[in-house]
Amino acid sequence: MKAKIAVEWKTGPIEGNVTATAGTLVTAIMRGSGKSEGNRFFTDGNPVRLEVTLETEEANRFPAILVKIDAPQYPFSFFLSDVNKGYPIYIPAYGVAVTQAEDDRTYDQIELDIKAKNLVTDLQRIEEEPEESYENAAAHTRELASQTWLGLSRDVRIFGVGFRGIGGEERLWDWVQPRFHGFEAKLPENEDKPVCYRYMLGRGVGCVEGISRRLEDGALPILHASISDNDVVYDTVSFVSYESSPLNADTLRGTHYLAADGFGHFHMLTEEQTALRERILPQELDREEETVLYFRAVATNNAQVPRYAWFKNVVPNAFVLNDDKQYEFDGDTGFVRYSEDRVFCVSKLDGQPLRMEETAVLLPPGASVAFEFYLPHRPISRERAEGLSRQSFEARWTECRAFWREKLSRAASIKLPEPRIEEMVKAGLLHLDLVSYGLEPGGTVVPTIGVYTAIGSESSPIIQFMESMGWNDVAERALRFFLDKQHDDGLMQNYGGYMLETGAALWSLGEHYRYTRDARWVVRIKDHLLKAFDYLAKWRERNKTEALRGKGYGMLEGKTADPEDPFRSFMLNGYAYMGMSRLAEMLRDIDPGNSARIEAEAQAFKADIRQALFAAMANAPVVPLADGSWVPTVPPWVEHRGPLAVNGEGGKWLTHGSVATRDSLLGPLYLVFQEVVDSEEDASSFMLNYHHELMCTRNVALSQPYYSIHPWVHLKRGEVKPFLKAYYNGFAGLADRETYTFWEHFWHASPHKTHEEGWFLMQTRWMLYMEDGEERLNLLPGIPSKWLESGNVIELDGIATYFGPVSLHVESHLDRKEIVAKVVCRSDRKPNTVSIRLPHPEGAIPASVMGGTYAASRQNVLVEGFDGEAEITLRFD
User: Fold this and answer.
1) 317: which of 143, 585, 602, 665 is 20 to 30 A away, CA to CA?
2) What is the distance between the alpha carbons of residues 467 and 428, in angstroms, rounded to a whole number?
3) Can you give the pLDDT at residue 209?
4) Which pLDDT score is estimated for 231?
5) What residues pair up with 215 in beta bridges, in sequence order?
6) Cα distances (Å, whole numbers) of residue 83 to 1, 2, 101, 110, 151
């Protein structure tokens, strides 16, 4: 097979060589002066045309032939099979185009022809559209309802709660399932298998679901549900409290972090940790009292004639038929038990013991009847059940409400014009807290992620959002988990063989220092920090070999996520660099010598990563965008040429429901977030563009979308509309729209996934405020402009920043043509510069600005020389 292609440059001189993964190459200069010999060339002039002839023996070769134009300034590669005169490979950033040899057009002519089509990239199209909203996103994305997890916070004894068709595969029943975090509770009466308790409200499953759910106050872990069964409506409340003790901050004991850690899927314990866990586990599980799921359903007849209300009491592991051989029902007490002294449910009807496990009550018009059950996490004795039956549902409910409200009262307050987002912030913080386990009042906390144990990477947004809301004490206890479990050699590894935890954990430790500036804390943990650095430095040293020059010199190799990919991935190395960089910062004042040593190594590491990145970019094929242009790409690790998803080198890369998982969710775009690549570099633009068009829908990544960091990159670059597109479509498609619980994936995998929720919360935090270096604080950099419609108020009270606590109050009075904002920061480390973005809902430019300098390009006001308080007023004509 012989193929002839032409490379057209806008301007010369150009020199370099041409290589291909197969075949024999010959080059010839057709426009411009110069010389060529074999695969090498030098050309001058404007424009420049180089023709390349490639001969191979195979007509339909696979893997596809990859051609590289290795020029000193802008090297690039492309698939030979992609060259087509109808759709030339046009790379405006490099001023070069590749076409078939019979196409005699110059670069300028090719460019004019493509631009004449008036095409735009997908990201450019988003910029031309109205800002995204939740309502629009919800209309175009899938709806994923989820089970709800209820518990006490710190205590690993939690409950999964769902209704017919919601939260699990079981669609015949309403249900409750006791859990030890990631594992369903097992019972000897069920052959040491998990038990699920099922019950039924109303007549049963029909053609109409008729179910709605909501959290109390829109945020508390107290679940309200309403089931409509024709004229009868069943209004339910579910929450968790203690069996007998009052529930408050003083009585909350929690669970030892190692006991809880072992109940997370894919946990990793050393032999010493395993022995300690086995020693303490009995006392952690066999407690004096159980946590209890309190449930009440009030059935109300809304008809004008009498109607029946139906209740089916709790049954363990019922399926299609009711198997009454597993349990006994006592109509005198309302107890349901496995044996005389193993009671697993206490049931009532209008405050009295439930007499029949299947009950029909005829209700007059407007009348109601209350069905209740109290379900201990594990069966209790008859004596304890009698005490439980005397509990007041109303009193427990009031107590539980006060418990969770008190937690919120200790966090920063965020009030927004969009109630859904405001509620999701509060609910999200409590969702994170619910599954962060440890002994109260000050023990180590394991910041778990859904059904899994903690990971240095996935736990980072959880911990950092707690920091952002002022829960620095809880965040410090969660960070202690990674220090307590650190290996003797310095490695931090807690989950499934992941190798990126050490760097990611160091980053989060560094973020805690930025929030608190607690030098004494750094002194206490200094030995752990230096041991972690030494581990990373030795790991790096093993990879400083001549064989790796240009192929990942000095870069770490190892598994980054679930797939067994032991490569030198950019995500792994970016976290290690960022961890080192933060560590140098933490030690700057208390140990300048080690700080300088670590900073020097971090900068050398960064240089090695960047060298590998641009070498990989030159070797990877360019891909087309929607505007007719092409951009360079980058593989997820240095050992591959190009995105795995395009299958240029073959392989089986589909995992977790997507062919793009490794490229998108674990890919090189992380280097922007990890401070290796600047957000304004061309490389960032390239990666954003091809990532969006190849690996996103509605600017949301596939599979496990919150692993993709591109929303942060958009926000950092001031690209508000693309950010909002990703933001709204992300949570509209992955979070339960009624209870705000997040799934891990789009196929009902892993409920209550706090890693995903943590990144959503951090996206919200960055939308509201984002630090820029050590001097500047950006306020409201990504809010929707509709939030500043007349009459709206935005209030951030006591939010935690690198500069200390900050408060912001914004009022829109566009009815009288003004927007007013007040910023207060009383900290002794307040920012030197504050930027506040105040976008007019219709894009209007203010006629006058008081309190700062207005920049129309980003619709923000810059307050320089900030003295701790500023008031800004925008007035419009």
Assistant:
1) 143
2) 14
3) 86
4) 97
5) 223
6) 15, 13, 10, 14, 59
Which value, to the nearest 10 degrees, does the dihedral of the CA atoms of residues 255, 504, 666, 551 take? -140
Three-class HEC string of 8-68: EECCCCEEEEEEECCCEEEEEEEEEEEEEECCEEEEEEEEEEEEEEEECCCCCCCCCCEEE
> Are the C-beta atoms of residues 63 and 53 closer than 8 Å to each other?
no
Task: Find the angle CA(511)-CA(516)-CA(522) to the nearest 5 degrees.
Answer: 75
Q: Quick one: average pLDDT of 796-801?
A: 98
Q: Say if residue 781 is preceded by a cis peptide, omega within 30 of 0.
A: no
The pLDDT, as a whole number, for residue 145 is: 94
pLDDT of residue 167: 65
Residue 562 CB neighbour total at 10 angstroms: 16
* Cis peptide bond prior to 13, omega within 30° of 0: yes
What burial class does residue 321 get, using C-beta atoms within 10 Å of its C-beta: 0-12 exposed, 13-18 middle, 19+ buried? Answer: exposed
- 3-state helix, strand, coil split of the chain in percent (to 5) is 30, 30, 40
User: Would you say residue 379 has pLDDT above 60?
Assistant: yes
Element housing 253 (H / E): none
Q: Enumerate residues 6+ apart whose C-beta is below 8 A from 348.
A: 334, 354, 370, 371, 372, 373, 389
Q: What percentage of the chain reaches a pLDDT higher than 70?
A: 99
- Residues 228-233 have a mean pLDDT of 97
pLDDT digits (tens, 9 = 90+) for 486-506: 999 999 999 999 999 999 999
Nearest to 92 by CA among 643, 710, 686: 686
Which candidate, 212, 213, 367, 234, places its Cα nearest to that of 311?
A: 234
Give the whole-angstrom CA distance, residue 473 versus residue 343. Answer: 39
> How many helices (H) and strands (E) in the chain?
20, 43
375 within 8 A of 176, measured Cβ to Cβ: yes
By the 8 A CB rule, do 587 and 595 touch?
yes
Residues 6+ apart with CB under 8 A from 389: 333, 334, 335, 346, 348, 353, 374
Average pLDDT of the chain?
96
CA distances from 173 to 313, 348, 786 (A): 11, 19, 42
Are β-strands 776-779 and 833-837 bridged in parallel, bridged antiparallel, or unpaired? Answer: parallel
β-bridge partners, 24: 55
For tokens 């009348």, name the residue.
367
Q: Which amino acid is at 95?
A: G
